[in-house]
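ingest -> validate -> predict -> emit
validate: passed (alphabet ok, no gaps, 306 aa)
predict: started
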Amino acid sequence: MGRDVNEPRGHEQPNSAYQRAKSAMNRGHSLAASAASDSLDVAIAAYSKAIQILDTLPRTSETANSLGAALSNRGQLRHQLHGLAQADLALGDFQRAANLLEKLDAPGFPWPRRNRVGSLINQANLLLDLEQHPAALQAANTAIEANRFERLADPTDTELAVLAARAYCDAAGQLLPTLPAHEQEPLAQQAGFHLQTALVHIRALRPYLNQEPFAEASKRLFHFGCLLFATHCPENLPALIVSHFQNLQDESIRIHLIETAREAIKSAITQISLAARNAGTTPQEQDQLAALSQQLGELHQELPTL
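emit:
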């Protein structure tokens, strides 16, 4: 959910109207978390009321941020209702929120930026559901570019980085098989860069937490990275695997990652064997492939001890 701010900063807002808008947003938050059958519709109505009020107020960083958060939250709920009509409305909410919040980015006031990144991630995920993969890739990439860290190992910014990378990789995973070979390589490289950056941020949080940070997204990104590298650049697979086991304390996650890595190594060795038998492979390339295959085989044996 997008987040507004608790207290106005800068110019004073028409207090009663601003408080009514915030009350409507709080009601929307509560209803969105409710299990009642009609809670989504009523929550959407609450956010719509907040948006209606905020649209009448003078634009300050606070009212604009609250408006962007309300739009993003309403879009999320509309996404949950399903149907193309609701999807169009949700996309409109996400786009308006992202456009509005882009103008508010300022050092020391991170929530407009964070809410914008969240809106772009929501937009990318909805576009993925609609199978509009190029548009989803673009939205996720914009989210990645817009995100930044207020401080080292910031959990909020790490979560946004991880979710944006996951959306990008989900879109890339759908697009790669549809592209000609010469167009696959740059997309695979970009996806590899984004997923490795996100995994670095996850590992930076490990010393501060008792459990794996963002465990499901972490497993998903690692799985995608292993498959991507096994297929497109097996020479990068060992570094990906070894680095992601650093400071890993969660034993259940470790078991899952070992199985993922084991399958990826097997796939990579198969790909390497096929490449070595290719008539166009030079003797020097065959030697390099043989060395890589041996390295991967040794890593396969070492997985339980990583």
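The domain at 1-6+15-29+40-139 is CATH 1.25.40 (Serine Threonine Protein Phosphatase 5, Tetratricopeptide repeat).
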